Amino acid sequence: MSDDTDFARQVEALRPQLLRFARCQLRNDAWAEDAVSDTLLAALEKPGSFAGRSQLKTWLVGVLKHKVIDQLRRHAREATVLTTDDGEDLDESLFEPAGGHWRESPQDWGNPEAQLGQRQFFEVLEACMDHLPPTQGRVFMMREWLELGTEEICKELQITATNLWVLLHRARLRLRECLQQRWFNAAKPA
Amino acid sequence: MKIRRTCRDVTRLVLESQDRPLSGLESLSLRLHWLACSGCRRFRLQQQFMRQAMGRWRDDRDNG
User: Which of A95, A125, A144 sits opposite B7 (nearest CB)?
Assistant: First the structure.
């Protein structure tokens, strides 16, 4: 078999993973397919320039991040529509309406090192991110996965800084709540 | 702007501090609140935990 065929196979083998990353960020299957196809096309232009699978993956993920931003920019209007879930504020359920005190005081989550050493923790974290409402999930991932600054996110999505803060605020509170329920309150293997 | 803040307000500022620099007055009001409120101190630790977790997650995902 030629090197090129082998290269094509390696690229193809990484496709499911890239598709999962793109879906998680874009929350739209068609956009994700487009972003991943553009990424793989870019890789096929460069056979022979990667030393091994891990270098290829790192490169592909780097390209994917750019292609994903292209999709977000192209679909900015649809990407910022708020679903009912996106609009819901957890503040009401967390704080007393009168004095603004915690209804239930936040718990001690313990030593991060102990938890972050467990693979299951990250499975729960990913599941919780996937459960964010779509627009909250998109902006949260733009911040945490694409590592974009807030000004850049506002520019790409054509939203105001205040709108962005509100969305990130809701996303972070939801993620915290989900981790509390599904990890810290759940019985964990010792 | 007042220096005494509710837990709800402090929570909003702690979250926003991940996305924008806080003013001196805002930072001071957080410090003063934390001195008196163990719930908000724990919330702050939870957010540091999440930041660490997201950093680890990103590394694993992109280079793992």
Answer: A95
